[in-house]
Amino acid sequence: MGLDEDALDYHLTDPPGKIEISTTKPTNTQRDLSLAYSPGVAAPCMEIAEDETDAYTYTAKGNLVGVVSNGSAVLGLGDIGAQASKPVMEGKGVLFKRFADIDVFDIELDEEDPHKFVEAVKMMEPTFGGINLEDITAPACFTIEERLREEIDIPVFHDDQHGTAIISGAALLNAADIADKDLEDLEIVFSGAGASAIATARFYVSLGCRAENITMCDSSGIITEARAEDDGVNEYKQQFARDVPEGDLADAMEDADVFVGLSIGGLVSQEMVQSMASDPIIFAMANPDPEIGYEEAKAARDDDVIMATGRSDYPNQVNNVLGFPFIFRGALDVRATEINEEMKVACAEALADLARQDVPDAVVKAYGDDPIQYGPDYIIPKPVDPRVLFQVAPAVARAAIESDAARTDLDLDEYEEELEARLGKSREMMRVVLNKAKSDPKTVALAEGENEKMIRAAYQIQEQGIAVPILIGDESKIRQTASSLGLDFTPQVADPTVGDYEDYADRLHELRSRKGITRTEAGELIEGDSNYFGSVMVEQGDADALLTGLSHHYPSALRPPLQVIGTADDVDYAAGVYMLTFKNRVVFVADATVNQAPDEEVLAEVTKQTGMLARRFNVEPRAALLSYSNFGSVDNEGTRKPRNAARMLQDDPEVDFPVDGEMQADTAVVDDILEGTYGFSELDQPANVLVFPNLESGNIGYKLLQRLGGADAIGPMLVGMDRPVHVLQRGDEVKDIVNLASVAVVDAQEE
């Protein structure tokens, strides 16, 4: 099947379309329904009647955007009418929800008259927190947006005008930086003089470009002052009429620094690119066929051609989804009255800044695992980069507050945390630990320090103030890799082959001499195995914590820390714990990595250690020891182990959280079963610490919850060690290393 057939099948699969309405409050009982509707709904109605701003408090208005169109200028399709544009507007709603958690009603108005269109939208103002205008032909779109901005008191944004302007503006900031050119000196040529081109030219002036350096061409050639007077050029194009000789696009592009294409494909030749100034910047954004192809433009010059298009299959895609969801997120959250120029500039600057930062592994994987690094082929963030939300929305919110467009103030530090929580419960939970780590950073040794991921993690750990990272490995290789990655930091390195670490070898020999390790072998292990080196470093107090395991099997990575550091004085067994986060629930799962066939004493110890870990995430533990039996319903050796462990814990005065078992998994996590059938249980709420009877079931269980249950998994976190040690999974991403480093710092703080 081709793309068209696939798209039709995608849209017609039951239920048709791409969006639905879902409830956000319980509707299970008669009382729920009486609260949701009559008679309970009268109470919020009366509050809003008393004070209209309470609509933001008691209804979804503050998170609801109207996507409004008449279908008169749908991208690539033209004037297809209101009804035919509905799939596009539904799609816009999908993007709002997917990227910024904003709800949308799509509104298709069968109305061509701009004034009637405005009146229709004005009547809907009480419904929405903001209006996104979409696919409306020029020049009517200018009139509609200008009037609505003046006449209603919620944000209005015509994405076709401003979206491309803002995203390409971010690209321009970085392209000029890479080309070492000042914005105010750039000679800029536009191909196209429609709504998007005019809005983009205006926006470039807001960024610092000079209007007198902008040459705009339409289908008749350069828009000159003479043409503007003689040919009846509309008032919007007249803003960029220049006092220059008449000519065509080829004439305009000669010696230009920047070409901005918002017209049709194939207009620009290699000769025209060759006529431009040195290190030209080319934004060929006609879709699906750009004004000049990517390879063609690159091949036209020997110097750097910095190229952007509207296509996803080439570097530097100018994609509006980088803008509108996050602009509205910031605007809605401060209850802005408008989206003004300051807010748009803030968005562009935030996007430009983000492109200069290290790129998460998940983003790199989404684009084929090729390296992504700030430079000519990466001047705009990728649309799937989750950081865009909490980089752009706060910048927009701050600009709204500072420009007096906001009706409510925000603590912007807290706001960033709230935005991270929108990306998932795991980010919210990790923020708790990250903040604790930053309050008192410790030193974290990173074994396998020559690994690119470890180096990138060290940069982020240091940049965020989480810890002082020490990379263990060849110092020259580490510094060379850091430089090639464009990381602006000088890492602290412990090179076992250069420094004087005889005392480390002596200590390893002392600890392991009765296990068959000679002094010579100890020296070889210290020099050649960063796991042993890092373990001794932490055991000797030269680092507070250790991370290892990125390129080793878990057992072989765990062995050196167990041999050198060992478990805590009052602990005989370490255990591996995963934190699994769902939309509205967090559970800690143990043991998933260490103890294959634990007896009741091991199960009890694992439960205690996991409960302590939960508290580091500000979660008050409620522990269930799992089995296929409920409280003695099956009696055999296997079910007695968790049952006896639960009794041991209940009798232990040091255990100050509820524990019970043995119980089946659904009993542990379903309130109705726990309370309705087993009301005698020590647990008065569903468990959030789940202790599996053996390693096999623990590993299977967490992976099923992760893959089929949609849980995000953080870990494994190693508990019970004498000093903080965490063993990564092979292939973990940089964010996983940073997360476990944060956990290790909090572990060290508690010691």
Automatic annotation (TrEMBL):
In terms of CDD domains, this protein maps to: NAD_bind_2_malic_enz
Q: Which InterPro entries match?
A: Aminoacid_DH-like_N_sf (IPR046346), Malate_Decarboxylase (IPR051674), Malic_N_dom (IPR012301), Malic_N_dom_sf (IPR037062), Malic_NAD-bd (IPR012302), Malic_NAD-bd_bact_type (IPR045213), ME_PTA (IPR012188), NAD(P)-bd_dom_sf (IPR036291)
- Looking at the record, the residues that make up the Malic enzyme NAD-binding domain are 161-401
Highest taxon listed in the record's lineage: Archaea
Organism (species): Natrialba hulunbeirensis JCM 10989
**How is this protein named in the record?**
Bifunctional malic enzyme oxidoreductase/phosphotransacetylase
Q: Does the keyword Metal-binding apply?
A: yes
What molecular function terms (GO) are annotated for this protein?
Answer: acyltransferase activity; malate dehydrogenase (decarboxylating) (NADP+) activity; metal ion binding; NAD binding
- SMART domains hit by this protein: malic, Malic_M
Similarity-based family: In the C-terminal section; belongs to the phosphate acetyltransferase and butyryltransferase family. In the N-terminal section; belongs to the malic enzymes family.
- What are the residue boundaries of the Malic enzyme N-terminal domain, all occurrences included? 16-149
